């Protein structure tokens, strides 16, 4: 395809503004999908993605429109996957900015739009959901101009749901978005945009060819990884997989090369010809680093092998989480896993539970602390509160900070500022645009990882949006808080907290655990402690009678049922010393409420 007949674009949208629905309509109108196939959203592949309304893996679809080839790149919709988003954007020359006609511009839209602007993209505003009674396209246009600072006079008005404005959108893509540039005679230079594991094809790699041509049968080299592979398939998605002989300069498509694990295919890597390599890789390559760590342990120790197998399987398709075996006095054998963020953690945990049918205990999520040691000198990276060195060996502890951008209607601003303040936030900026506040805070990542996002959503009734980037490490007065149940430390619940927060956090944990741990035949003290010093304490009173005694001895089947039910319940509990703690308690106790 000649360069001037190609358009590569992505769709930027806040969650639920209609990105997937619009993409499906574009595919339908250009002939790739029937009405019936339209029913099942094509671009959201996995069940979890659909249920949560997010798109995790970038996908691309090739559309034919009036003699032009349009490549639509779907991008992940969550802050945890920011680097993948940046690479999908780098594979395009423009973006559709989809904004809900009733909701207007939201924070997540902003973060992606700014990235797109940085890539010198041409941005085409699309105001969607104009069928809604509350739709106010003129107001949204003004917002786009005020807040984002781009011309919205040429915005296309659509209803992806009812099919209004779809052809206009396609025409506008051809008119507004510039064709790609590149040198078709130069050595092959292609970007590895994304990869995923397919049980039939092996690893499928999504690529954008910048220079040269990528052909079936070609020997290629991954410049960062340093590996060579033989291309055995080349093609594109229309949205059905279509094999081609080659991908030319400016084109987006996929290749397979008998690769078994996605870990061998780093997003952002440069693919070149092994025999005639390009001299310079593409800019912007980054290795993805997990930022949140937690332990995953089987509730039933006998499930350890199953957990290991399941984790290995998941890893085949997601190279962005890491794991190593971990053993804990109380929890036995499990894995210490690293994730890109909390959503990523939840997705993996949910898949292990749901797809692999495992009962898991997740220990308190933790960020990576940087510890400078006193006597022996040197530094350590602390991934697990259990490995915290003795305080007198520590010269200084530093923790990662983020810059958070929160965008919220005025009426919820007060409680949001309080939330940020409570989480040790430092306010950096506060501006108002058309009835909404945009506030920027610096916050310790540690204060955000657990339930900040949930709290933010609940106090703003879902209206606040949140986006963040890391801004480096800063020293802090951080201490390890242990939780003791019946005098025994429960290491799954120990966490690193700021000294100023320790007492409140400790008291809260003890209160929560008091409700979450069932009564036993004896009294159970629950304590929070720093070093040897107890900072909070609760007691669970002893159970007075045997539960079966209320069956009056008469009804033997009822009695048996009750005992079976107890046994069932037991399976989902862990024993600490002689106290049983239900699985739910581990996560629930950590929520700040
Ligand atoms: P995404 O999260 O941006 O991919 O959004 P989806 O495409 O999944 O759409 C979110 C919700 O909005 C779904 O329930 C859609 O049916 C609905 N939706 C999408 N486009 C429109 C539209 O034009 N009008 C109306 N009324 N609803 C829409
Ligand atoms: Mg979607």
Automatic annotation (TrEMBL):
Gene3D superfamilies: 3.30.70.240, Elongation factor 4, C-terminal domain, Elongation Factor G (Translational Gtpase), domain 3, P-loop containing nucleotide triphosphate hydrolases, Translation factors
Residues annotated to bind GTP: 16-21, 128-131
Domain Tr-type G: 4-181
Chief site of localization: membrane
Any one GO molecular-function label of the UniProt entry: translation elongation factor activity
Superkingdom, natural source: Bacteria
Membrane-topology descriptor: Peripheral membrane protein
UniProt catalytic activity: GTP + H2O = GDP + phosphate + H(+)
UniProt keyword annotation of Cell membrane present: yes
Recorded coiled-coil stretches: none
Keyword Cell membrane attributed: yes
UniProt-annotated location(s): Cell membrane
InterPro entries per the UniProt record, alphabetical: EF-4, EFG_II, EFG_III/V, EFG_V-like, EFTu-like_2, G_TR_CS, LepA_C_sf, LepA_CTD
Annotated keywords: Cell membrane, Elongation factor, GTP-binding, Hydrolase, Membrane, Nucleotide-binding, Protein biosynthesis
SUPFAM superfamilies: EF-G C-terminal domain-like, P-loop containing nucleoside triphosphate hydrolases, Translation proteins
Family under the similarity heading: Belongs to the TRAFAC class translation factor GTPase superfamily. Classic translation factor GTPase family. LepA subfamily.
Stated role: Required for accurate and efficient protein synthesis under certain stress conditions. May act as a fidelity factor of the translation reaction, by catalyzing a one-codon backward translocation of tRNAs on improperly translocated ribosomes. Back-translocation proceeds from a post-translocation (POST) complex to a pre-translocation (PRE) complex, thus giving elongation factor G a second chance to translocate the tRNAs correctly. Binds to ribosomes in a GTP-dependent manner.
Name of protein: Elongation factor 4
UniProt organism field: Stakelama saccharophila
